[in-house]
Amino acid sequence: MTNKEPNPDPQAPAAVYLVVDVTVTDPPLFQQYVDGHQASVARYGGRFLSAAGRTEVVEGDWDPAILVIHEWPTRAAFHAWYCSEDYRPWREMRQRSARVNAILVDGLPLPIPPDGP
Q1: Predicted local confidence at residue 5, as pLDDT
Q2: I want to staple 70 with a disulfide (CB 3.0 to 4.6 A). Which of 1, 18, 27, 113 is the partner?
Q3: Mind listing the pLDDT tens digit for each residue in 18-46?
Q4: Angle, CA of 57, 63 and 64, to the nearest 5°
Q5: What is the pLDDT, as a whole number, of residue 2?
Q6: Where are the alpha helices (DSSP H) in the chain?
Q7: 22 assigned to some structural domain
Q8: Alpha-carbon distance 25 to 33, whole Å?
Q9: Does 55 map to a domain?
Q10: Of residues 80, 85, 89, 104, the one with CA closest to residue 33
Q11: pLDDT band for position 53 (50/70/90)?
Q12: What is the domain range of residue 52?
């Protein structure tokens, strides 16, 4: 490590990623959800990395209709948002307008060592 590189705190929590596979069942209602909930994500420190982009199956048979990826600074930040009164009406709207499979996955601590994780 050179003097110009940051000294990462090994105790600092890594970012987490929410990966959501969405099948829309009520397009008009789902669009209201999309338009309405995004500000709540930002208020809790989340950000969108991908939403409704084109996917390409590289291996296997998973072919999501819509794939959404959020980044959250910590697992606690994600849960604070997901369980918040701010997001509750949007979550209920999404549950009425789409079927989803969602997972939360830990990110790697940064910087990643040159020899890999």
Answers
A1: 42
A2: 18
A3: 999 999 999 999 999 999 999 999 999 99
A4: 130
A5: 40
A6: 27-43, 75-82, 88-97
A7: yes
A8: 13
A9: yes
A10: 89
A11: confident
A12: 16-59+72-106
